[in-house]
Design goal:
The protein has about 70 residues and is mostly beta strands. The chain contains no helices and 7 strands. It has strands at about 1-5, 10-15, 20-25, 30-40, 45-50, 55-60, 65-70. The protein is globular and about 30 Å long.
């Protein structure tokens, strides 16, 4: 997964996405602020943060959390 963007918006790119995945965005205290689904074959999704802060992006099936800082 490769996030790019500025401000409160980020474009998350997943190269070679071979299955549908759930994407969850958590705030700094661990609460889910948004949840999305990216379908098999899709490789980009735009995420928007409601406010400034630190967020974690979880992509189902990858075992990774991506830190996203919104100023």
């Amino acid at each position: 997964p490769n996030p790019t963007g500025a401000g409160n918006e980020v474009i998350l790119s997943i190269d070679g996405n071979s299955k549908s995945r759930r994407i969850k965005v958590y705030n700094a205290v661990g609460s889910i602020v948004s949840s999305h689904r990216i379908e098999k074959g899709e490789n980009k999704i735009v995420l928007k943060a409601p406010t400034s802060g630190i967020y974690l992006i979880e992509i189902e099936g990858t075992g990774n959390l991506i830190k996203w800082v919104v100023e």
